Amino acid sequence: MATIIVLDENTVNMIAAGEVIERPANIVKELLENSIDAGAKKITLTVADGGRKLVSVTDDGCGISTEDMASVFRPHATSKISSTGDLQKISTMGFRGEALASIASVAAVSLVSKTADSLNANRIDIDCGKSGRVQPASGDTGTTIEVRDLFYKLPARKKFLKTANTEMTHIIEHFTRIALAHTELDMTLIHNGRQLHHLLSNQSMQQRITQLFSKTIAEDLIEVKNREKNISIRALLARPERARANSKFQYVFLNRRFIRDKFISHAIKQAYQGLIEPNKYPMAFLFIEMPLDAYDVNVHPTKIEVRFDNSNLIHSQVVGTLREKLLSLNLDVAAYMPQRPVSVNHTGQPADGGMQEARRQKIEGAMADFFKQHGPSQQRQRDFSFPSHSQAVPLRSQPADSQQSVQDNSTQPKFFLQLHNTYIVTQTNEGFMVIDQHALHERIIYEDMCRKVADGKLTSQRLLLPETLELTDAQLDAVKTNGELIEKLGIELEPFGPKTVAVQAFPTMLSKVGPADFLSDLLDMMTDKNLNLDAERLLHEILDMAACKAAIKAGQKLSETEMQQLLADKDTVDRASRCPHGRPTTINFSVADLEKQFKRT
Ligand code: ADP
Ligand code: MG
Questions:
Q1: 235 has a pLDDT exceeding 60
Q2: Regarding beta strands 250-254 and 416-419, do their DSSP bridges make them parallel or antiparallel, or are they unpaired?
């Protein structure tokens, strides 16, 4: 007896719905995309009970003709492609002809639509796959689709829906993505009778981001544009300190379609490398335009993933564009002032970072201690003498690239002091800044070493007493395979017994670091398979480690000359506002903020 049957259409649709319709937000996405494909200029999204009760979209697009009304809910019914050839260059948001059929199989749907040249609108109702008849109705040109009571005949699926709030968060996310990609549209979002957003047509991207996220986020964004090899990139980048614990705040659009792509995420991360902590994700809005036939969108039912013909090219172009811009900026961190209200957007996410809170408390604590010791009376403040210009001691060494001296550098701070043997505080034009001495010194040494290695090798000095180190087999192997790299670092080794080497020469810059210890760590790093780094990354990891070891430590008392040197070097190195691991080296406090805090304004 035959056991195989061909499933009926409605069952097929319900199975397909499982792929694309998991929750109300998926319906929102499909309906909004249909409105965009219909050339709408104005779209209103109305939702009740987080979309569990109602998702309705009204647009002023081209509408659906009387003849087509009955077929839009049929599977694989689409007006957007007609042959396999069209799949190579999809310019519409939809093309699979699946969404409406899927939605109509799992909810009660009504569609009212009118084309411009039709006298009246038409209406059709379809309840979990059971279709009514097309009937004349009243309505303006455009389309309204109402989707009610999602999964009401499918309790097993309905029970997976979350609270109205959670479902609403997802809906807002999809609304946000479309709104960012289509600033030309007038878009409204209403939930339970309350208007959450009304975005006017033709807003600037900054205006959109202000409305969808917050003013603070929008105001700080760094914009960069680039067009090369048929790929155009427009990026609005948040400053490094806004980096998040996950990549949710990375909005990447390819020809106005929101996508998630591991190559592009990696490229964004790489662009911020050294500017943010390694486990953080930068916040960024990226708009990429490229020829339609240079990638495939037909790899995932929700089209959130694409396959690039040349993912390396797009990767390198994103890294190049973003990184060049980021490195050209002064990315000093502004102090987070305590009483500034934290605005909350509709997703319930704090729009402004609370992330600097811990750091702020630490610094405030240090400042409070300082003033306990040295203030606040006038008399005691005067007793405390700040080292100043006039007392400047000649510099020990000149910063690598610069002929500037402390005296002729107008930006050189006049006053500075060390707090808790860890932070240096100094006056700036706008207020004052607090510097983490270790982090800054680490960056200075790191940049200096990078430059020297790029030019050839680190200068080294011969050790009067060579240090010996007994190696493990793996370390011995590393010595053999990394000879060139070791030489580049200015380390000279000589065999000193079967498994022992003697360090004959060692980099001058690391004079404070024990040669044998350093070598041991270095070889471990080279043999660490978990790191799995290419040569370039390995070199940078090594320089990073070296800089960390050689840098002034937290808790180390500094002389005036040393502090002055550090501050002078700060102005001459690249990326001075971050240590090589991406932590800030400097936090700026502005007088304006202080005045607000002291209620002077
Ligand atoms: P797809 O978008 O992949 O073509 P859908 O199931 O989403 O498939 O839609 C089926 C068809 O219904 C579309 O191709 C389009 O012709 C028509 N349609 C859907 N929504 C609208 C709308 N808002 N305005 C005009 N036509 C629409
Ligand atoms: Mg569609």
A1: yes
A2: unpaired
pLDDT: which is higher, 319 or 401: 319
Residue closest via CA to ligand 1's atom 18 equals: 34
The pLDDT, as a whole number, for residue 369 is 42
Ligand 2 centroid to 76 CA: how many Å? Answer: 10
Q: Give the predicted TM-score (pTM) of the model.
A: 0.66
Closest atom of ligand 1 to CA, residue 145:
23
Containing 536, the helix (H) or strand (E) segment is helix 535-550
Of 95-104, 128-137, 388-397, which has the strongest mean pLDDT?
128-137
The protein residue with its alpha carbon nearest to ligand 1, atom 2, reads 94
In this structure, the residue with its CA closest to atom 23 of ligand 1 is 35
Mean pLDDT of 400-405: 36
The pLDDT tens digits of the residues spanning 408-430 come to 444 555 688 999 999 999 998 88
Other CB atoms within a 10 A radius of the CB of residue 346 amount to: 17
CA–CA gap between residue 225 and residue 130 (Å, rounded): 50
Highest mean pLDDT: which of 5-19, 48-62, 578-592?
A: 48-62
Give the closest residue to 78 by CA, choosing from 97, 54, 50: 97
**To test the ligand 1 pocket, which listed residue (59, 76, 78, 86) has its Cβ within 8 A of the most ligand atoms?**
78
Integer Cα distance of 165 and 115 in angstroms: 36
User: Which residues surround ligand 1 with Cβ inside 6 Å?
Assistant: 30, 34-35, 37-38, 59, 61-64, 72, 77-80, 94-101, 143
For the CA of 81, the nearest atom of ligand 1: 4
Q: From 327, 332, 218, 347, select the one nearest 270 (Cα to Cα).
A: 327
Q: Ligand 1 centroid vs 34 CA: distance in angstroms?
A: 5
In this predicted structure, what is the pLDDT of residue 189? 97
Centre of ligand 1 to C-alpha 84, Å, is 18
Q: How far is the CA of 253 from the centre of ligand 1 (A)?
A: 22
Distance (angstroms) between ligand 2 centre and the Cα of 138 equals 24
* Residues 570 and 411: beta-carbon distance below 8 Å: no
Measuring from atom 12 of ligand 1, which residue has the nearest CA?
72
| Residues 284 and 268: beta-carbon distance below 8 Å | yes
pLDDT digits (tens, 9 = 90+) for 103-135: 999 999 999 999 999 999 999 999 999 999 999
**From CA 411, how far away is CA 330, in angstroms rounded?**
14
Angle at 291 between CA 288 and CA 296, to 5 degrees: 90
Q: Measure the CA–CA gap between 301 and 315, rounded to whole angstroms.
A: 24
